[in-house]
Design goal:
UDP N-Acetylglucosamine Acyltransferase, domain 1; 10 helices; seven-stranded parallel beta sheet; alpha/beta; disordered C terminus; 43% helix
Length: 378
């Protein structure tokens, strides 16, 4: 079965026939059979004498394979010509690596088939999986291999279920591009030419997008940015109106009005106005929350991360608006305005009522008597 997979140029169309290879026992037996087809195989002495290479079991290594520091290989295993392994790699039993592969820093592979020209340059784990030709796998890739309920792993594709064994990783087609930090759940299938975004957790089959789908997704991104721009504009427009009205009232009270009663009413209105302003920012949360709802729906429908995208683009946007800090700082500013209005209110209250208190309070009359002011007793 392994030999047939290696020779099958259109293997992904028949991938269901190769699912048994995700069972480590079956794959180990097939690797042993493949090694037996090479007559009078003797492992090259340069590999056996390499102090940084530890080999146990039946391991077949073709010509021009380069090992870079601290590589452990457990047989049965097969490594194709022209590949580079290491440093610090661990190839466990049941590993088949095709020609011209790059398996580099801190990578562990177990019970898996990697076809030709696979690139896996940085740390990660591949288990009980089949990786297609020319797949490029980013740093931190991990394929999960076991279900929590210990049931057999099912590979689902085009509404068909193909049962595997207790441990089953993933099947990745030819020319797939996988970003950094991707995690793939057991039994997932990624079709040829697919692109997996960095940090994604693959929980369902990933299919290559047609040009029409890519155009639609670009339209979705435009709608996302338009939604965000609109809500950002509303945030600033609303707060600018509040700021303008507040500033006009402050100028009126401090510079033009001399009527204490009018000033007192304006300061009361100013405090109420600022409290309403603050509540609009706290409860309404137009910028912080309302725009997220349509984007969450887009995220579910399109399997993309618009909110993450907006976070990434926030610093480059014409309005340098952070998702949380702007509203937070605006509320702090409003609290300063409330405190200022309260101070003006107390000051005007003092200026309005102190003459009445001094005219009618006997204590003030006694104070004025001792200070020499006798007008109050006339």
């Amino acid at each position: 079965m392994l030999e047939r997979l290696i020779q099958d140029e259109d293997w992904f169309s028949n991938f269901a026939n190769y699912i048994p290879l995700t069972d480590q026992t079956i794959l180990e037996n097939d690797i042993e059979k493949l090694i037996e087809t090479y007559d009078e195989f003797v492992l090259d002495q340069k590999y056996l004498q390499n102090p940084n290479l530890i080999i146990t079991g039946n391991v077949f290594i073709e010509d021009n394979v380069n090992f870079i520091g601290n590589v452990v290989i457990e047989g049965p295993a097969f490594i194709g010509r022209g590949s580079t392994i290491g440093p610090n790699c661990y190839l466990r039993s049941g590993t088949y690596i095709g020609e011209n592969c790059q398996i580099r820093q801190c990578t562990e592979i177990k019970g898996s088939v990697l076809l030709n020209s696979v690139r896996f340059y940085h740390f990660g784990y591949i288990g009980n999986s089949i990786i297609g030709n020319r797949a490029n796998i980013g740093a931190g890739f991990i394929s999960a291999v076991r279900r929590f309920d210990n049931q057999n792993v099912n590979f689902r594709f085009e509404e068909n279920n193909y049962e595997g064994s207790v441990k089953g990783g993933c099947i990745i087609g030819d020319d797939v591009q996988i970003g950094i930090g991707v995690k793939v759940m057991p039994g997932r299938v990624i079709t040829p030419l697919s692109i997996i975004n960095p940090g994604e957790v693959v929980k369902s089959t990933k299919e290559n997008k047609t040009q029409n789908e890519l155009d639609q997704e670009e339209h979705v991104w435009a709608a996302i940015m338009q939604t965000w721009d609109k809500e950002a504009d509303r945030f600033w427009t609303r707060n600018n109106v509040f700021l303008t009205i507040n500033g006009a009232m402050l100028v009126f009270v401090t510079s033009f009005s001399t009527d204490l009663k009018i000033n007192l009413l304006v300061t009361i209105f100013g405090m109420i106005f600022c409290i309403i302003w603050m509540r609009v920012n706290q409860i309404g949360k137009y910028y912080l929350d309302r725009w997220k709802e349509p984007l969450k729906k887009i995220e579910l429908d399109w399997h993309i991360k618009p909110i993450t995208r907006i976070n990434e683009l926030a610093t480059e946007h014409p309005l340098p608006l952070k998702l949380k800090s702007s509203s937070k700082y605006m509320i702090i500013l409003i609290k300063y305005f409330v405190s200022f209005w309260a101070l003006l209110f107390l000051l005007n209250l003092w200026r309005l009522f102190i003459p009445i208190i001094t005219d009618n309070c006997q204590i003030f009359k006694v104070y004025q008597f001792f200070t020499g002011d006798m007008l109050l007793f006339n």
